[in-house]
Amino acid sequence: MELFIDAVKTHSMELLRRLVARHQHLRMTFGFYRDHTCQTPFSFFGDGGPKHGEFIGASRVDQLRKFVDGAGFTEGNDTSVEALGAGLLFASQLPWVARNRVLVCVGDHASHGYAREFVPEFAGDHDSIELCEFGMTHERILACLSRARIRCFMVRCGRDAPAEQQYRDIANKTGGRFVDFQNVEEGDGLTAAVEAAVAESQGGSAVALLERKRREGQISDQSAVALIQAFGGKERP
């Protein structure tokens, strides 16, 4: 996961600049989840936990940049915390007040234990979702997100098949999109995926935004094809 974490951090600065320039009334926050320690499986801008998380506007975006760039996010699978489930659960408990609520989750794997056939292959408790101390299940994740009226845009980086299955289900059942983004090293494409999610949630056309980026050479043809297809357009060969 370290490659993906570094890529997200590297390109988050450009993403923030673009979002602030194009969506003046947008209020945003950042969260990173990890399973390195049971005590801190997630971290949100603000005071770390969801109840004290903060959504901020353009006037404070520099603070958000410092959070993304300076936090010591790590990888690791050595605990019984279900990282993805915990991250989504606590994101649903943030102090959301906006009518349009969008969560963009970037990950490379499904919840530990989501594919039951994985469980016997590993000795650690962390590989079974049923043993997580937060009691995460796929159904509970969906229930929490639905109650909070959050549209989830789930971005899969890599080729993990269970991740595609779970991410698609979460996106479909919350009214969001599943984005299959193979090349995480292309930061412009990853940034465009988040921009497209915000544009669609604001009533704009994600496909039109992506097609413009393609014409202007801001994203590669490969990324454009994947993203336009994810947002319901017909990609050109």
Features:
237 residues, mainly alpha, Rossmann fold, 10% strand
- Which CATH architecture? 3-Layer(aba) Sandwich
The largest β sheet comes out as: 3 strands, parallel
Number of helices: 8
CATH homology-level superfamily: von Willebrand factor, type A domain
CATH class: Alpha Beta
SSE sequence, one letter per element: HEEHHEHEHEHHH
| Strands, total number | 5
- How confident is the prediction overall: mean pLDDT? 77
Taken as a percent bin, the fraction of beta residues is 5-15%
Query: Helical proportion?
Result: 40-55%
Number of domains: 1
Low-pLDDT parts are 74-81, 117-129
Give the CA-based shape. globular
Question: How big is the Rg?
Answer: 17 Å
Distance between the termini: 31 Å
Secondary structure category = mainly alpha
List the helices and strands and how they pair.
Blueprint: H1 2-22, E1 31-33, E2 42-44, H2 61-70, H3 83-92, E3 102-107, H4 138-147, E4 151-157, H5 161-174, E5 177-181, H6 187-201, H7 206-215, H8 221-230
Parallel strand pairs: 3-4, 4-5
Antiparallel strand pairs: 1-2
Helix pairs in contact: 1-2, 1-6, 3-4, 4-5, 6-7, 7-8
